[in-house]
């Protein structure tokens, strides 16, 4: 085979490996997560109007970080995930009359976190799980979950980690991806 023919062959093999989810050296491509926010200005409770916590940009950045970290922890190589966040309702509510002038977030058992999302999980280009879900946990203040929730987004982080473990991985004890 001529040098020119071998060059094209290498390009075709490389393209075939990439489309099959492998890098040039034959190793599986790393998992990838894309998070998109759909109409975030309309979310139930993502923007802190009273200055007692992060604003909309800070909330979205933190939710993106949590989703990416939670998903990548359980996804396998050659898997890609696209998550559209449709609504965020953080645990608790802001009482502007407390801790004047900035307000204070009050968390109680009647104010659980809720996140609505749509997701698409693919392995090697083939859809292996997906759907639209409303995540919430009415028992978010009980037991180890409450103790583990710390920081401004502790309850939301526990909720999203749980979702990633049960929906995106069969390796972590959850039911694993559901074929579609």
Structural description of this entry:
It is built from four helices and six strands, in the order H-E-H-E-E-E-E-E-H-H. With 180 residues, it is of the alpha+beta class. The protein has a four-stranded mixed beta sheet with strand order 1-2-5-6, with helices on one face. Helix 2 (56-74) packs parallel to helix 4. The longest helix is centred in the middle third of the chain and has 19 residues, at 56-74. The chain starts with a helix and ends in a 12-residue tail after the last helix. Mean pLDDT is 79; it is low at 5-20 and 171-180.
Number of strands: 6
Low-confidence stretches: 5-20, 171-180
Query: Which structural class matches the secondary elements?
Result: alpha+beta
Reported for the largest beta sheet, the result is: 4 strands, mixed
Order of helical and strand elements: HEHEEEEEHH
Distance between the termini: 44 Å
What percent of residues are in strands?
Answer: 15-25%
> Shape from CA axes?
elongated
User: How many helical stretches?
Assistant: 4
Q: Estimate the helix proportion, in percent.
A: 25-40%
- What gyration radius follows from the Cα positions, in whole Å? 21 Å
How much is the average pLDDT? Answer: 79
Strand order of the largest sheet: 1-2-5-6
């Amino acid at each position: 085979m001529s040098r020119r023919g071998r060059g094209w062959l290498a390009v075709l093999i490389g393209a075939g490996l990439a489309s099959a989810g492998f890098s040039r050296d034959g190793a599986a491509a790393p998992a990838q997560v894309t998070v998109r926010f759909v109409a975030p200005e309309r979310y139930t409770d993502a923007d802190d109007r009273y200055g007692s916590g992060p604003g909309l940009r800070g909330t979205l950045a933190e939710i993106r970080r949590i989703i990416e970290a939670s998903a990548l922890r359980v996804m396998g190589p050659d898997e890609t995930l696209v998550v559209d966040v449709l609504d965020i309702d953080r645990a608790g509510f802001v009482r502007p009359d407390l801790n004047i002038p900035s307000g204070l977030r009050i968390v109680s058992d009647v104010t659980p976190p809720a996140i609505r999302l749509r997701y698409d999980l693919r392995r090697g280009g083939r859809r292996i799980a997906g759907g639209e879900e409303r995540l919430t946990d009415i028992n978010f203040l009980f037991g180890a979950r409450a103790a583990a929730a710390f920081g401004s987004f502790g309850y939301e982080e526990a909720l999203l980690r749980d979702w990633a473990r049960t929906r995106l991985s069969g390796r972590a004890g959850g039911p694993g991806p559901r074929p579609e």
